[in-house]
Write a structure and sequence with these properties.
The chain has about 180 residues and is mainly alpha-helical. It has one domain. It is built from 7 helices and no strands. The longest helix has about 30 residues. The protein starts with a helix and ends in a 10-residue tail after the last helix.
Amino acid sequence: MAKSDCLDLFGSARHIRVFMGAEEQDFSRQQLGGKNQPGVWIGDLGGLCLYWVTPWLITSRNIQAPGWYLAFCVSLYAFGVFTHFASDMQKTTAMQLRPGELITTGMFARLRNPNYFGELLIYSGFGFLAMHWLPVVILLVWVGFVWIPRMLQKERVLAQLPGFEQYKTHSKLFIPFII
C-alpha cells in the first residue's frame, strides 16, 4: 500500500465526518445540554489535530508491512466506516421519526454507542498502519478523556426515558461483549 493510499484512507474518514457529522454533533450537544462555546470547539479542534500524528508517522518512515497486516488494517477501517455511518444514519432517522423515544433496535440492539465503536475501528485500523505506539496512546487518551465522558453524559439523559434501565442490562456501552 502506497503512502498516498494511507493518506486517502485517513482523509476520506475525516471528510465524511466533517460533512455528515457536523449537524448531528451540534444536535447531540444541544440535546445533552452542552454548550456550543468557542472553547469547546477549540478544544475539539486541538484534539482532532492529534489525528495527524498517524499520517505523519506513516509518511516520514519507510514502513514495509506484510500484506496480511495491511488487509487487517484496511478491514478494520472499512468495517469502522460502515458501523459508524450506518449507526449515525439509523439514529438520525429514528430521532426524526420517533423523537424522544429510546432507540433499542438495529445497530443499537446490543450496543448503546455503535457510532463510537465504529470510530474506534476507523482510527485503530489507521493507527495500526503506522506500526508505532504513539497513535494507539493518542486514541486511548481520546477515548478515555473525551468519548467515555460524553457517553456517560448521554447515559444520564437517556436514563430519564422509559425502558432505559432494562435496555442497559442487555446492551454494552461501547465495545461489543466487553464494555
